[in-house]
Write a structure and sequence with these properties.
The protein is mainly β. It is built from two helices and eight strands; from the N terminus they run H-E-E-E-E-E-E-H-E-E.
Length: about 170
């Protein structure tokens, strides 16, 4: 009798389990990765990954190698290519934490309050610049930068321009 009850419990336990593994995700699967090159004497580079969410927003993940410490490195999305002098800031992204080399920002609109989608961002003539510091002379030191969207095909001198002062 005990064997029958134990068998029934096992049948109920395993029979009630859902063998369909369903992965719930907020992302559409659309993703674009851009390279970020060293922008100064610091040997820092990495990537900026744009991931489309089902709600229309875009998650921008900046991943750098070579950063360290507790310092926060500001990240800006600038209009124009990396060589454009005084390029306007299109959006402020979450700062990269030195100890992890990472930043993650959910982007739904630009600094001028224009709603922006994933498709808009990957076609935008823009670049990403990661600064050494938020203010002072170190603000003008670009740790890493890279063109995104239509700026990928822009011809530049290879130099990374200093950003427009706010």
């Amino acid at each position: 009798m005990k064997k029958v009850i134990a068998g029934m419990i096992l049948v109920l336990f395993f029979g009630c389990q859902d063998n369909d593994v369903r992965v719930s995700t907020d992302f559409t699967g659309n993703e674009t990765v851009y390279a970020l090159q060293a922008g100064s004497v610091y040997p820092i580079g990495g990537t900026a990954t744009f991931k489309e969410k089902k709600d229309g927003s875009t998650v921008v993940v900046v991943t750098l190698s070579g950063t360290e410490g507790d310092i926060q490195h500001p990240v800006h999305l600038h209009l124009g290519n990396v060589g454009s002098p005084d390029a306007a800031v299109a959006a402020l992204l979450t700062s990269v934490t030195g100890s992890t080399g990472k930043s993650e920002t959910t982007l739904t609109m630009l600094a001028d309050e224009t709603v922006v989608t994933y498709a808009d961002l990957i076609s935008l003539g823009a670049c990403i610049k990661v600064h050494l510091a938020e203010s002072g002379p170190e603000r003008d030191i670009i740790l890493a930068a890279g063109n995104i969207g239509s700026s990928m095909s822009a011809k530049s001198s290879g130099e990374i321009a200093v950003c427009k002062s706010e």
